[in-house]
Design goal:
By secondary structure, the chain is of the alpha/beta class. The protein folds into five domains: 35 residues; 97 residues, Beta-Lactamase, CATH 3.30.450; 67 residues, Helix Hairpins (Orthogonal Bundle), CATH 1.10.287; 186 residues, Heat Shock Protein 90, CATH 3.30.565.10; 136 residues, Rossmann fold (3-Layer(aba) Sandwich), CATH 3.40.50. Helices cover 45% and strands 20% of the residues. It has 19 helices and 17 strands. Strands 6, 7, 8, 9, 10, 11 and 12 form a seven-stranded mixed sheet that branches. Strand 13, helix 15 and strand 14 form a beta-alpha-beta unit. Helix 7 crosses helix 15 and helix 11 packs antiparallel against helix 13. The radius of gyration is 37 Å and the shape is elongated. Bound molecules: adenosine-5'-diphosphate. The site of adenosine-5'-diphosphate has 22 residues, from helix 11 and helix 13.
């Protein structure tokens, strides 16, 4: 056995050693066995036949037997198993290997023990095992409950996100019709009065749509499903586009709206331009909303460029440019004790001043998450009645070689090539389009939008009808809804693609759906569709996609 040493777990053991010389060896052993006897852990000595030679009080309590009844018996017999030790019994393993073993075992009555089994050596011979076990029943139960609660909360959050996605789907569909019809009527309205009323319908529908999009974003964030794209884009152009979209609103309120982009800020970066614009849209929109006089200014600089140019430059050289964004206003400001609350969902700072402003309290929560997903963090400084500054830094990845590589990213920002420049009979001619959509109002709206651009539209009420119509006629392109009775858009697409394998050819299919979760888009593409437009359909987006198809047809024919 080991030499006696001071045990920090036994009160007075240091003293005991100090005074060892003045005590006899048997005194010391008596004190030690007293300490072991009163330990909360169960301590049992087993001999080479696994028989119990000694047990402390905690072990006797566990077996509900006095020491005399335990001595000479084998633990598994005492536990009511006549011939067999517990599976993975650490004591047995020590006897077989002569090495320390540890395991967690469950016992009748739901007890769980962490068992440490140490070999006892004497003169080079293994003479038995000392088993020290700790009751971890409560801890295990607690851990299991925690795990269960975590799983339940993940499932609840998932079903909430699904619910939000479904509700927003249901709202987007009629909104598609309201917005589209209002736009059509607005363009052909005969009196200013009608135009004014229609503008109110359009504005309110747009506001509702923003709200629905925010809710959907929030549900994606909570379900961990918000994904950012990585594309090359022109940073100053993306920022200027958003700033200038507020020019009219600022002018109407008599506010100055300015932007300054430092010359060190790189032009072409890699990231998610649309999500960055969404953040700027929220922050500049708030700036204008909460400011009655003065100005709203947006500024972009290379982070730390003033204080530590070399560091910023170093990062830039490593292919990363940290760009510092700041959006300042001279508005009502935010009380200092409420500053940290503004980023929480559905939080609006209640004050006499804010009563006049409409909003949902979602914009900043979403912006904060988006900035974090982009690798930054959104902060705010504000002085009541003086103004606020929201700021964040995004470490943008730079394009390694800008030469010749900018084309891909700029396709969307670049003015579209005029179709007149292409030499083909297809150019300017309308497309034969098969519109697969079950809702009569959506059919009507989309048909009107397409016919306005000279396309010819045939409608099918579901996937099955679409297959029939495809056999009967010739089409350039299919616009396909997803959720439809009888045969949905995914199944119809699968049939079309399978048939093409035998017959040849490949008709472009554009999914047209109000489902806006990333996995829905994945599903469409997996099913063999080529593009995806989300509802409510933005007429300009639809026209642009159709134009792209026409261009690619022209290129194929050339
Ligand atoms: P919303 O503007 O829709 O209410 P946000 O999440 O964008 O939601 O903002 C939350 C709250 O933070 C606002 O209601 C307002 O009280 C406060 N806030 C945000 N931006 C500003 C700002 N620039 N100036 C003053 N208060 C602001």
């Amino acid at each position: 056995m080991k030499k006696d040493t001071a045990n920090p777990n036994i009160p007075g053991s240091a003293n005991m050693v100090e005074n060892a010389s003045s005590r006899t060896r048997s005194d010391l052993q008596r004190l030690q066995s007293l300490a072991v006897s009163s330990m909360a852990e169960k301590v049992v000595y087993h001999d080479m036949q696994m028989k119990i030679r000694w047990a402390n009080r905690a072990a006797c309590d566990f077996y509900r037997l006095p020491l005399e009844k335990m001595e000479g018996n084998i633990c598994y017999v005492l536990l009511g198993r006549s011939t067999e030790e517990c599976r993975n019994c650490p004591v047995k393993k020590v006897l077989q290997t002569g090495e320390f073993h540890q395991d967690i075992l469950s016992f009748p009555e739901g007890k769980t023990l962490l068992i440490n089994a140490h070999p006892i050596w004497e003169d080079g011979n293994l003479i038995g095992v000392v088993e020290v076990s700790l009751d971890i029943t409560e801890r295990t139960k607690f851990e299991e409950e925690l795990k269960k609660a975590k799983n339940e909360s993940a499932a609840a959050s998932e079903s909430k996100s699904r619910f939000l996605a479904n509700v927003s789907h249901e709202i987007r569909t009629p909104m598609n019709v309201i917005l589209g019809m209002a736009n059509l009527l607005y363009e052909s309205a005969h009196s200013e009065e009608h135009q004014e009323y229609l503008k109110m319908i359009k504005d309110s529908a747009s506001f509702l749509l923003t709200l629905i999009n925010d809710l959907l974003d929030l549900s994606k964030v909570e379900a961990g499903k918000l994904e950012l794209s990585q594309e090359h884009f022109n940073l100053p152009a993306a920022v200027e586009k958003i700033v200038s979209s507020f020019a009219l609103q600022a002018q109407e309120k008599g506010l100055r709206l300015s932007s300054s982009i430092d010359e060190n800020v790189p032009q072409i970066v890699t990231g998610d331009a649309a999500r960055l614009q969404q953040v700027l849209f929220n922050l500049i929109g708030n700036g204008i909303k909460f400011t009655e006089q003065g100005e709203v200014s947006v500024s972009l600089t290379l982070a730390d460029a003033g204080e530590d140019m070399s560091q910023a430059k170093k990062q830039e050289r490593n292919g990363v440019a940290p760009v510092f964004f700041s959006i300042s206003d001279t508005g009502i400001g935010i009380p200092s004790d409420k500053l940290d609350r503004v980023f929480q969902s559905f939080t609006r700072i209640e004050s006499v001043d804010t009563h006049n402003y409409e909003g949902t309290g979602l914009g900043l929560a979403i912006s904060k998450t988006l900035v974090e997903l982009m690798g930054g963090s959104l902060g705010v400084k504000s002085v009541e009645n003086k103004g606020s500054t929201f700021y964040f830094t995004i470490p943008f990845t730079l394009l390694q070689d800008t030469k010749g590589k900018t084309e891909g990213f700029s396709a969307a920002a670049k003015p579209e090539e005029s179709p007149g420049e292409q030499s083909s009979e297809l150019v300017g001619k309308g497309l034969e389009i098969l519109l697969v959509e079950d809702k009569p109002m959506n059919q009507k709206l989309t048909t009107v939008l397409l016919e306005k651009k000279g396309h010819h539209v045939i409608t099918a009420n579901n996937g099955k009808e679409a297959l029939d119509k495809l056999q009967a006629g010739r089409f350039d392109l299919i616009l396909m809804d997803i959720n439809m009775p009888e045969m949905d858009g995914l199944e119809a697409t699968a049939h079309i693609r399978a048939a093409e394998k035998n017959l040849g050819g490949r008709i472009p299919i554009i999914a047209m759906t109000a489902s806006a979760m990333p996995e829905d888009r994945e599903k469409c593409l997996m099913a063999g569709m080529d593009y995806y437009v989300s509802k409510p359909i933005n007429a300009q987006d639809l026209y642009q996609i159709l134009e792209k198809f026409r261009q690619s047809r022209v290129e194929d024919l050339a």
